[in-house]
Amino acid sequence: MTSPRLLTLSDAAEVCGTTKKALERRAERGTLVVEWRGGVRMVEVSELVRVGLVDSGAQVAAPVPGSSIERPLAVLARRVAEADADLAEMRAALAATEAALRRAREEARMLRSHLVRQSASTDLLAETA
User: Which CATH class is domain 1-63?
Assistant: First the structure.
């Protein structure tokens, strides 16, 4: 079995016997170097060894399906689905707004036309008086 080079913070916390929050705090302080991959914070096993969280000779097991590596993917999939639903809702609202704008413009055109006719009628009455 080969050891993974990168672990999610959740998997790294399991390997190190600590919490994900503790690793996040180390990253915020700059005492643990992490990198973002596809919206997920990852840490190299060598970095865990460097900071003393894992023994240099220790075998680190690769995450198994259903582990914490799957959770960020599930979260991202849910966010994409929510964004799609939001986009569909926004498109529907935009279509309704555009329809209302067309109706308002047509009504304004009709009112202008009516006003011009009224103005012309008033001018005719003034001329005949």
Answer: mainly alpha
